[in-house]
Structure formats: structure tokens, C-alpha cells
Amino acid sequence: MALHLADHMAAALPTLRVHPTAKRIRAMVDGKVVVDSTRARIVWEPRRIVPSYAVPVADIAGMLTLSNGAPRGAAHPVTIGTGPPVFDPSTEFSFHTTPGQMFDITVGHATLRRAAFIAEDADLGADAILDFDAFDEWREEDELLVGHARDPFTTVDTRRSSRRVTIELAGIVVADSTRSVMLFETGLPTRYYLPREDVRAGLLVPTDTTTVCAYKGRARYWSVTVDGDTAVDVAWTYDEPHNYATAVKDLVCFFNERVDITLDGVSQQRPRTPWS
Questions:
Q1: Is 60 helix (H, G, I), strand (E, B) or coil?
Q2: How far, in Å, CA of 132 to CA of 144, rounded?
Q3: For the chain, what is the mean pLDDT?
Q4: Which residues contact 7 (CB under 8 A, 6 or more apart)?
């Protein structure tokens, strides 16, 4: 019987997962390199869908001290598809799903509170799993990283398409295009990025919301008002996308989860994701 790879990977979610990386990983604080490792590993704690970097303690230019009595961080479980709940990227680093101990990292006069976690796992040994947000800047080789550690099993692919994409909100067509760029990202529904000229004029209202994607960069958001009802942050744009997604620069994408999409006249089912 054939193995369905997506099901196979989903079955591993409840376990602690580790994968080596050949890339040099660095993290900075106040312009100084605190982490510099060519021995890093990528780690997913049980039920986590985004990974962290783990490095040997010797590759950290700081002193680790036990974080005694530190409270556990907040968790944000979400359901994707029909699988069991997992923890989305907004779950705090200090919420851990495998046994271990939290550590502070002291660098000069600065202390990074609860920035390291050493799991009680023989395969990880004394490697420290690091809080991405505790550092000012991360580099993978010389390339800037944002958001979180990159997952080597996540791909982002784009394709230009002449298939007709129609977006409806509350039964009203708000966009209609045969010039989309379809973005395919592992584990997520196909996203349809459309030229702004193919969105009904005057509907898009910019908001102050921004988010960061480790693979695509920083997005800014738009609300849409139809017949007096406003769908807040229902669409987004990447002004300066990273190399994974340069083809979608300045295009507008609507949440599949919150609008009705037809593709060549065929209605697409609204997916169930953390953004539903």
C-alpha cells in the first residue's frame, strides 16, 4: 500500500523531531554575535509546527544559568484540517512540550531571559534550543532570517496562471482575474495573488497590521468593506518579498478561509487553518 507522505509527517507531530543543517547559523544581540555555529540542528518540539534552532552550548558566546521558577509561556493550540490540535507560531517559546530545563543567557551586561532550553533527550545531548525572538538578528550563512527558523521540508513555489480566479465576499464579487500568481506552500492551501487592477477600485483599505513569514518576508494588510460590512485584514501584500516569493511582489492575496473563491468557475471549499 502506498505511503501518503503528508499523513506520515502528520503522524510524527506528537514526537520530538530533529534534523541536521549544513548551514552556518548566527544570532546577534546589540550588533554582537552571540551564537555562531556550523553544528546547528533544527528541532520541532512535540505538536509544534514551526521549528527552532539548537546549537552546542560551546557555540554560544554567553553564560547559561538555570531559570529557576520561570512561569510557563502561553500556548495557542489550533486545528488544521481534521488532525489533532497543534501549537501555532504565536505559542510562546517558554511553553515546552518535552521535558527539559530553561536557561537564561548572559552576554556582557545583558541577560536574555529564558532564551535557551535543554531537552532531556539523548539524541539532542546538551544542545540548547534557542528562542528566535530573544535575539535581534539571525543569519543563515549571510542571509537574513525573519520570523523563525526555516523548515527544510517546507517549500514555497509560485506559478503564473491564466485560469480565472474570482473572489466573492458576502456574495459580492470583489476581484476577478486571469493574471494570478499561484503560491504553493507546504501544508497550506494554494494562495491566489492578484494584480491590484483586478480588485474592485476603492475596496481595499490599508490597516496597521503587519506579519512576518520566515519564507516570504513582511506582509501588510487590507480591509474590505462591502454593503457597509467590513472584513478586517482579509487581504495582504508583500512589498519586498524574500527570494522564495519575489513573483508575488505588490500583488494582493485574500484569505481563502474568509472569502469565497471560484477557479475557472468551480467553487473552492474554504480550508480549515489557523487563519479560519
A1: strand
A2: 13
A3: 93
A4: none
The residue type found at 117 is: F
Q: Where are the domains of the chain?
A: 5-145, 156-268
| Cell (9 digits) for 204 | 481595499
DSSP letter assigned to residue 256 = T
Buried-state track 180-203, b at ≥16 Cβ within 10 A, e below 16: bbbbebeebbbbbbbeeebbeeeb
Neighbours of 139 (CB within 10 A): 17
* CB 129 within 8 Å of CB 119: yes
Mean pLDDT for 20-27 is 97
Contact 174, 200 (CB under 8 A): yes
- The better pLDDT of the pair 232, 69 is held by 232
Please name which of 206, 208, 217 lies closest in space to residue 240, comparing C-alpha atoms: 217
Q: Is 253 exposed, middle or buried (0-12, 13-18, 19+ CB in 10 A)?
A: buried
- 78-129 confidence digits (pLDDT tens): 877 666 788 888 899 999 999 999 999 999 889 999 999 999 999 999 899 9
Residue 110: CB atoms within 10 Å: 12
As a CATH number, domain 156-268 is 2.170.150.40
What does the alpha-carbon distance between residue 199 and residue 186 come to, in Å, rounded to a whole number? 27
For the domain spanning 5-145, the CATH number is 2.170.150.40
Task: Judge if 5-145 and 156-268 fold alike in CATH terms.
Answer: yes
Residue with the bigger pLDDT between 83 and 269: it is: 269
Closest CA to 50 of 97, 8, 90, 98: 90
pLDDT tier at 72, thresholds 50, 70, 90: confident
Phi, then psi, of 7 in degrees rounded to 5: -65, -40
